[in-house]
Amino acid sequence: LEESLKSKVLALYEEALGDLRLAEQWATRGAGFVQAMEEAPTRLKSLREELAKPPVDAKPQAPAGAALSDLEVIVTQQQAALKSVRDELDAIDKERVERSDRAPKIQEERVKARQDLEAARGAPSTGPPEEPAALTRARQLRQQARQKLLEEQVAALEKEGPSYAARGDLLTARADSAARKIQQAEASLKAWQEFVNRFRQEEAEHDARAALQKQMYAARKLPIVQPLGDIPDGISKVEPHGTPAALRGRGDAAHVQHLPG
Q1: pTM, whole model, 2 decimals?
Q2: Which pick of 10, 23, 123, 227 has the fewest CB atoms within 10 Å?
Q3: pLDDT tens, 33-45?
């Protein structure tokens, strides 16, 4: 083929390939609308059953032998979980707005796509008699690809509106579920933060008692202190540094007893 003819033929082939790719995208979109519509009843039933259940207890359950750093990691995880469910609700709200905005546009796009499809079907499939056969074949392929694109576009647009309508209750249930998850995540985070704060306070008090015990044992060796006798029980019985009472299932730690006089 001459270079000028070859350029025209290749341009038509490239346009046809581009239309076929777009047709595939519209076909996938249409199939997605159908699948979402078919799955909506099952998903709605599942969400409603979940919403009917009582809320989960937010009481922290710390791992055995957990250190303060381990509990702080859990708090960070709780914060991430709360952000995740908040993002989920934001996405649902955004989807609701997008659906509302799409409603008037769907009809406009569908009417235009149908008009374009009728025009493509009525367009001549051949050029002038003197047109080279290679160019005619390329032109026909381009027209076929264009029709395929418009057919898939019309089909997808005809499914979009009904798909949104069939999933209206599901969208509401998804929002309700996300809002409930946020409430539970907030309660869980608050409970863990309070638990860690108590743990941190008890650990500080434990360290303070241990330090005081060490000081008293050191002072005991001084000649001026020896006549005072043994260290009071409240000091001598301070446990070695370990798990604070918050994780041992006990109440607040005993207060430190002071030396007489």
Answers
A1: 0.70
A2: 227
A3: 999 999 999 999 9
